[in-house]
Design goal:
The chain is α+β, with helices and mostly antiparallel strands and about 375 residues long. The protein has three domains: about 80 residues, Beta Barrel (conserved putative lor/sdh protein from methanococcus maripaludis s2 fold); about 90 residues, Elongation Factor Tu (Ef-tu), domain 3 (Beta Barrel), CATH 2.40.30; about 110 residues. The strands form five sheets. It has a six-stranded antiparallel beta sheet with strand order 2-17-21-20-19-18, with no helix packed on it. Helix 2 runs antiparallel to helix 3. The longest helix has about 40 residues. The protein starts with a helix and ends with a strand.
């Protein structure tokens, strides 16, 4: 009986040990998770992103009067097409006419003074020449008389020169008043369209007013201004074709050429303003219209891409989970542009590295996993 009892105890111990080993092995097997992974790929970025833009006139001038006056006539209105130098409005300023008459009178008086001084000079020169000829005969003309006649001629010449200077000053004054008088004519600065009119005949206007008389804009050429995020501002090239759409013509695609790049990022918005030149000969596109720009984004060198689902962001960091030698690693990354289901990343990764398809901070660094390459 003792032998049988001992055998039963030995069998019970053996079964217990085998059961403990089985449980340990099962626990080890259940601690290894299976993670679906994809390989990091390197490829050139060549995508199109949608950015908001605004159409602006190529040229826009608010027309103010240079002098004060009353609006005598205005021959254009909102929507009028004008040519360079075309008369748009005329002002009336009676004091300008008075100043012109005064300046003309001074100019005429100065010319009269010149004529008088020149006539006296001619007369005194004739007298001097006669005295000089007579002085050839000794005793006929006193030497002092000849000297006085010569001095008188010199004085007349100085008087003529002074009169000429006064006449030139009067002429300049008349020209200044005439130039000021031209300011009464308001002309078009360039070929364009009047887009704003704020006065009517009889209104008193002046150079210090806040509201312009008229506004003239060039509409056959437009500027499409786009604020490009700094992530998309690399490798910009003048002359590149850019397409855009506007709400007023749904379904229609317009295009322009990249013409002006500021080459400076606005520190407040982290964007770089650029201008696309748009030809608008028919005037269909209106300044002030918002546009959706199909902005091309290129990289000069290939960059790394992973599925967007692989990127995890928490309160502290943005990372992907790399699986190497059956263990997980959190790799900090910065994201770039998206290309379909893939997102551009920058970090300590190499092409061919395997990262989890679905990133989650529940998968801690250093976890033992079994990587399974995704078929998608």
């Amino acid at each position: 009986m003792r032998v049988v009892a001992a055998a039963l105890v030995s069998l019970s111990l053996a079964v217990g040990c085998n059961s403990a080993k089985s449980k340990t092995a099962a626990a080890a097997n259940t601690s290894i998770s299976r993670v679906e992974v994809v390989r990091v790929v390197a490829q050139p970025l060549n995508i199109e992103v949608r950015l908001p833009g605004e159409l602006q006139p190529y040229e826009s001038v608010a027309v103010f009067p240079k002098i004060s006056g009353f609006v005598d006539r205005i021959g254009v209105d909102r929507g009028s097409r004008v040519k360079t130098g075309q008369l748009m409005a005329r002002l009336s300023a009676p004091e300008i006419a008075s100043q012109r008459a005064e300046a003309q009178s001074k100019a005429d008086a100065a010319q009269s003074e010149i004529a008088t001084a020149e006539a006296k000079l001619v007369a005194d020169q004739n007298t001097y020449e006669k005295l000089k000829a007579a002085a050839q005969t000794p005793g006929v003309v006193a030497g002092n008389d000849l000297l006085q006649a010569q001095k008188l001629v010199d004085a007349d010449e100085a008087q003529v020169q002074a009169a000429q200077r006064i006449a030139e000053a009067a002429k300049q004054g008349l020209q200044a008043v005439t130039a000021t008088e031209q300011y009464l004519r308001i002309t078009a600065p360039f070929d364009g369209i009047v887009t704003e009119r704020n006065v009517h005949p009889g209104a008193l206007v002046g150079p210090n007013q806040n509201i312009p008389l008229l506004r003239v804009e060039t509409l056959h050429r437009l500027r499409l201004v786009v604020a490009v995020p700094e992530n998309y501002s690399a490798d910009l090239a003048n002359g590149a074709k850019v397409q855009f759409t506007v709400p007023s013509f749904p379904g229609q695609i317009f295009s322009g050429s990249l013409a002006r790049i500021s080459h400076s990022v606005d520190v407040k918005t982290r964007t770089m303003p650029v201008e696309i030149e748009v030809s608008n000969p028919s005037g269909r596109l209106a300044p002030g219209t918002f546009a959706e720009v199909r902005w091309p984004v290129h990289r000069s060198n290939p960059t790394l891409f992973v599925p967007t689902s692989s990127i995890t962001t928490n309160l502290e960091r943005t990372f992907v989970i790399r699986v190497r030698d059956g263990k997980t690693e959190w790799i900090d990354v910065k994201t770039g542009a998206s290309n379909g289901k893939l997102t551009e990343i920058f970090g300590d990764l190499e092409p061919g590295d395997e990262v989890a398809v679905r990133g989650t901070d529940e998968l801690k660094p250093g976890s033992q996993v079994e990587a399974k390459l995704s078929s998608t």
